[in-house]
Task: structure prediction
Amino acid sequence: MEGRRVLIKLGGGLITFKDEPCKVRSDILTACAERISNIVEMGWRPIIVHGAGGFGHLRAKQYSLSSGRDEMIAGQDEAVELVRKEMLDLNSQVCKALIDVGLKVSSHPPHTWSRGTGQGLVGSLQRFEADDGVIPITYGDVNDCDGPEGFGILSGDHLMERLATIEGVSKAIFALFGVDGVMSTPPDSEQQGILLEKIDSESDFIASHDSKIDVTGGITLKVACARRMAAGGIDVWMVNGEYPDRIVDSLLQTGTIGTNVIG
Ligand code: IP8
Result:
């Protein structure tokens, strides 16, 4: 099937209630699924990545899963299995939302096809390369790791970066919650920040990171991954997913409200 490939990350904070355990924002998820269906009608071939939000970060934080195995922390192995199970549950809800708008999807839980975390992720991307009209979906997960750490947290942002190496990927969109893109100052800052419409490797911004909840890197990690993707020739956008039209608009030549990350 002809068409251009686009990577879309549905942020965990967008599709779930980030500070409550295992609760999906169904209205936003449905609206995003409808726009993804529009994108397919426009001739794009999406690959979907989603984050964890309240399905992964809370328990991963509680059991320090991102630092790997720590013999001093009881219950880590059970927590790894539970987070994987909860992520499978979230993933099945994302798949269902896309099926409900008439799309065909395939699910690719990272712990079944890859190892490692961050830029050290190892795994064949062949499963994402098929041209059969089925939309592959993957997500941030707990992955097995080599070495004494045994396991670790793989962020969907690092998956986006890796998937950007697939032939034919020309665009990537990060759909965020509660913010229009990358701001000059964090949303909780006393200073009034402005939306940075374009950022490149030189642009300054002051990041905020909700380290009470978030076990991966928040906006700092997203921007770092996005900059490397842009340096590799991908047109990267960060948009507010609460306005799902902006996901579609960022694919149109006219652009949208959001941050365009350029290489
Ligand atoms: O929300 C984190 O993925 P992210 C994955 O994309 C887990 O950073 C299980 C916390």
